[in-house]
Amino acid sequence: MFFIKKLITFFIIPPGLFVLIFLIIAYFSRNNKRVLTISLASAISIYLISIEPVKDFLLKPLEAKFQQPKNISGDVIVVLGGGSYNTGILTEDSLKRVLTGFVLHKRLNVPIILSGGSAITNLPESEAMKSLLAELGIDKKMIFTDVQSRDTLENAFFTKKICKKYGYKTVILVTSAYHMPRSYMTFKQAGLNVIPYPTDFKMDKKYTVYSYFPKMNVLQDSTKAIREYIGLFAYYLRFSFR
After folding, report:
1. Which of 12, 65, 99, 212 is such that its CA lies 20 to 30 A from the CA of 198?
2. Would the pLDDT of 120 be above 60?
3. Which CATH number do you get for residue 216?
4. Across 148-174, average pLDDT
């Protein structure tokens, strides 16, 4: 009975609901091959990117490239923003990144650069992260904020300006594991000496029967992975034709 309840629940809320709707459309469009094909393809696609094994398949090439180093040293910790709401509340990605930066600061006692502007929200995410770190007891004199950057390219550009101003040579780069390959490439292209320190790993690796039920959070993670591949390709082209 519990399994049946879970199964019904997963298919009456998105993304399972969307899979069900496309299957219903496909059923009632059996005589229209074009609509049938599009509906079935949509149902299968949404289902696949909403289950954990496929999400992990998409994330693995991104997250497996860098691991957290055991021995680490640097002049400054750079934390990249991962989004915030208009209320100033950090998203899950941003929160995990800034807390990792906090732990590293306590361990190494070096300054922190928070990089993230306000391309979408009213409050720069770097300021929201700074407020959290200040509440956790970090001296504001040890925190620098870049409130202008809107993407990874600008993260690297404005971070480099801060590093040049204060003489920082080696940066410990903190961002989500799925975002680290693009971030590392971009910061290296900017001429910075970078030590990658990934966090916010999203792979599950171990599965149960419920791992094959479509879930919205899994769909979101799969979407992040797909977006990273698009970003990597775009940045690769940009750097190749400089």
Report:
1. 212
2. no
3. 3.40.50.620
4. 95
CA distance 68 to 35: 48
Residue 148 lies in a domain: yes
Report the distance separating Cα 239 and Cα 158, nearest Å.
18
Contacts of 194 (CB under 8 A, 6+ apart): 170, 171, 173, 184, 187, 188
Q: Which of 159, 178, 156 is nearest to 66 (CA)?
A: 178
* 29 pLDDT more than 70: yes
Could you give the C-alpha distances from 150 to 116, 119, 178, 220, in angstroms and in order? 6, 5, 18, 21
Question: How far is residue 69 from each of residues 42, 61, 110, measured CA to CA in Å?
Answer: 41, 18, 17
Neighbour-count burial for 175-203, b at 16+ CB within 10 Å, e otherwise: bbbbbbbbbbbbbeebebebbbbbbbbbb
Q: What angle do CA 92, 95, 101 make, to 5 degrees?
A: 145
- Domain with 238, as residue range(s), is 49-201+211-242
The rounded Cα 129 to chain-centroid distance in angstroms is 16
**What are the beta bridge partners of residue 145?**
114
- Residue 221 within any structural domain of the chain: yes
- Work out how many domains the chain is built from and give that number: 1
Q: Does 53 sit behind a cis peptide bond, omega within 30 degrees of 0 on the bond before it?
A: no
At 38, list the tokens: 């599009």
Residue 137 DSSP symbol: T
Tokens matching residue 150: 């809107």
Q: Largest Cα–Cα distance of the chain, in whole Å?
A: 69
Q: What is the pLDDT of residues 174-220, one digit of tens each?
A: 999 999 999 999 999 999 999 999 999 999 999 999 999 999 999 99
